[in-house]
Amino acid sequence: MMNIAIFGDIHGRLLLPFLLCARWEREHDDTIHHALCVGDLGIYRGLHTMDKASRRWAKKFPEELGFSKYFRRFDESLRHVVGHPIADEVFAGTDLQLMFLPGNHEEHDYLHQLRAEYARSADQPLAVDRHWEGLARGHYAQDAFSGYGRLLCLPQGKVVTVDGPLDKTSWEPAVQISLLAVNGLDAFTPREAWSARHTGPIQIMLTHETYLGRLRGSDPSGRRDDYGSQRLLELIKKLGPNYHFFGHHHWHYPEVELKTDHARHTRSVGLNQVFFESRDAGISRGCFGILRINSPRELHFDIVEDAWFEALHYADVQAYL
Question: Which residues are CB-neighbours of 214 under 8 A, at least 6 positions away?
């Protein structure tokens, strides 16, 4: 069996998913093998690199600058990235890496630069929290600290193989699943992501925007009826993934089935943002779920509604935001 944590938009609260996964593991006496985010992780090197909307939110909620706070601590005198004690504490308690799809609120030029200059392969996730420039210039001795490698940016339109735990007899992954990430907003989706050919079944499709018609009837005014992407709808119908997860709209949209080509059905779920509306508020509901995979054909997703999660408030995690 493989357990995958799925998170909605995180917007800079980058240590929170790791804390939530570690707590879930303790409470369930079980293991989370991978974690995914549907976009808007909040990769910004500082307030000056943010888009206008993100800058406005960051002035109200400084935790939106979590990437620059915890992951970009570059010491000019030492020519070295230095660890943050709070991040060090969090990562000492978990081996997880968080794979994310770039949303519309990221520093895209920076992400494109990293992928163009440092990605070993165009179809593999890239760690964005390593100091790649320092590594390339030889600033680090062997094994010197150069970033965590905990935040992995998924390539769009490329199928990524996600391995489950190793079988103890063969030492091969007991389960392998295929993951495809596509933003869904035209301005943030490479042209080739729409036209790339894919062979074999895809178990998980991760998008930021959702497909046209998915939100129809979700509010009484009908304001959201025409939201979503027609091109994404066509792509999902063509590929027929087992599960489709999306964010962007900052609400939890419970699971529905979409009939796809070849008489298959895709189960689609919308995740809420991982957010506290105020310093007195609890965590947003429907922002975190667990996908359990017994085999490439046996997948089941549940939103986390545990009592400890429902009771979680800003003050409980303030030190890590």
Answer: 227, 228, 246, 253, 256, 258, 268, 270
